[in-house]
Design brief:
Number of strands: 4
Order of helices and strands: HHHHEHHEEEH
Helix content: 40-55%
Largest sheet: 4 strands, mixed
Strand content: 5-15%
Radius of gyration: 18 Å
Length: 155
């Protein structure tokens, strides 16, 4: 186990109740939950691997592959859906050449959908890292990446 994970594990007592907080702490540290770390968690809190995987896969907050340097969360809440969220998701997907839940090969970008980011007045919207982009259109999405390539936008 690497040193940074040892410090994460040291924050817990190894009780079964620690499972979700431990998963969250590991994901915060590493950015995702690698399979080998899930096995270490299983051993640390003395519960079967299947239960650790079951809990980790049940909650959408947990990720099993690394996120890109620029992480895009396309909102698919009701307001965004009504105002064209599927077209926005397709524009991101087509522009990046990846599907929802994937990252580009160079880990520059990753794309996921979320149930709601709480910016319904800006629908359709997405979060790009910590920044909310609202009233999106497919044209605005493509423009974002053109401006980003020209270093006109920092995220």
């Amino acid at each position: 186990m690497e040193a940074s994970l040892k410090s994460v594990f040291s924050e817990f007592e190894g009780r079964q109740e620690d499972l979700i907080p431990l998963l969250q702490a590991v994901q915060t540290r590493l950015g995702y939950l690698p399979k080998d770390v899930l096995l270490e968690i299983s051993s640390f809190i003395h519960i079967p691997e299947s239960r650790v995987f079951g809990v980790a896969t049940f909650y959408t907050q947990f990720r099993f592959s690394p996120a890109g340097k620029t992480h895009i969360m396309a909102c698919r809440g009701t307001a965004c859906h009504v105002r064209g969220a599927p077209r926005i998701l397709k524009a991101f997907s087509d522009t990046l050449g990846i599907l929802e839940g994937e990252a580009t090969g160079d880990l520059e970008y990753s794309l996921e959908t979320v149930a709601c980011i709480g910016a319904c007045g800006l629908a359709p919207c997405a979060m790009i890292n910590d920044r909310v982009e609202g009233k999106l259109t497919p044209k605005k999405v493509r423009g974002f990446f053109r401006r980003r390539l020209k270093n006109e936008i920092k995220v």
